[in-house]
Amino acid sequence: MLGVTNVPAATQALAVLQLLARHADPLPAVTIARELDLPRSSTYHLLAVLREAGFVSHLGEDRRWGLGIAAYELGSAYSRQAPLQRIARPVLRQLVDTTTHTAHLVILHGNDVLYVIEERAPRRPSLVTDVGVRLPAQLTASGLAILAALPAPQVRALFSDRADFVVRHGGGPRSLTALRSELAQVRRRGYASEQGSVTPGLSSVGAAVHDHTGHPVAGLAVTYPYDSLGPHEHERMVAAVLSSAEDLSRRLGHRGELAR
């Protein structure tokens, strides 16, 4: 195999992951170093960094290394994302037609949300939520909707440190206790909302999208100027978002009852 000792560390890390992916069983570090023509010290450093990020796991008793849960999540996210986008786009277009405001779809990426679709409404301003943008999940309506549908231990693992609570404009929960309280309100209401936490002057209403297993695979939301809607219009906005989330969940094979 071509040596990678003189290429950037990112390429070395990818080479480690590709090597582990080609083997059915975990490998000793010495084998990884030999196969990639890497110094042992560099190999152990790369493995430590990848382990901390969850991309590799260390089997201590066997002294071997294998792919970690983050590598699985990345692969499964790719396999979900293409059909999810294809199925979701007409639902979001209909949501934009119904509400006349911009709609978007996100997936959870660690404790962030990754925007995978934005359907911009005509004559509405551009938003920060363009495709490919990542934002702290606890600040967004779509992210809060996903988090509210996750098991409590998973939420606790995602937000295990105060540094995980990023603040953009002074809004949003800043501790796990505050986040738990916010998620409890989301579950009671059946939808999530935020006001000015992402962009001053704008609000969003969001709901979770579930797959055939009941897992929240995505969140969808509509964003609008928060001083532009009266109470009746807000209720219509919420109803449209919930209906779209239910429609998309059904298209993904979900057959259970969605929280309202």
Structural class: alpha+beta
Poorly predicted sequence stretches spanning 5 or more consecutive residues: 1-6
**Helix content estimate:** 40-55%
**Assembly type:** single chain
Specify the CATH homologous superfamily of the largest domain. Answer: GAF domain
Number of beta-strand segments: 8
Mind telling me which CATH architecture of the largest domain this is?
2-Layer Sandwich
Shape: elongated
CATH topology-level fold name of the largest domain: Beta-Lactamase
Cα(first) to Cα(last) distance is: 56 Å
What features would you describe in this structure?
With 260 residues, the chain is an alpha+beta fold. It has two domains: 9-67, Winged helix-like DNA-binding domain superfamily/Winged helix DNA-binding domain (Arc Repressor Mutant, subunit A, Orthogonal Bundle), CATH 1.10.10.10; 72-251, 2-Layer Sandwich (Beta-Lactamase), CATH 3.30.450.40. It has helices at 9-22, 29-36, 40-52, 69-99, 141-148, 152-158, 176-189, 231-251; strands at residues 56-59, 64-67, 102-109, 112-119, 134-136, 192-195, 202-210, 216-225. The strands form two sheets. The chain has a six-stranded antiparallel beta sheet with strand order 5-4-3-8-7-6. It has a two-stranded antiparallel ribbon with strand order 1-2. A hairpin with a 6-residue loop joins β6 (192-195) and β7 (202-210). It is elongated. One of its GO terms (molecular function) is DNA binding. It comes from Microlunatus elymi. Keywords: DNA-binding, Transcription, Transcription regulation.
